[in-house]
Description:
The protein is 31% helix and 31% strand. It is of the alpha+beta class and 108 residues long. It has one domain (2-106).
Amino acid sequence: MKSGGLAGLAETITVQPDGKWKQGDARNTNRTGRLSAAQLSRLQALVADPRLDAEAKQSTPGANKCNDAFTYLLMVDYQMIKYEQCGQGKPPEVTMKIISLLQEATAG
């Protein structure tokens, strides 16, 4: 989930194990599709990356208060990683790669 910003964005992307995805936002705009074989393979590799566990344990709500920051919430299986883009240093690498992959794959 990506939320925040000046416009109050609230976007969710859900991916099934077979690569089918659904994207929705606060305006109830829903789109569906399927990841390519290469995208699904890359996503599976990122989800299996052991650094993701460490990122979940270090998940922080953001050190500062930012009016136009984006907050990312990534759920993998039953694990949650939260990252607020608000000047808190280096973003979680694997989490951001997953988010980037999904945003590119579902861009329309």
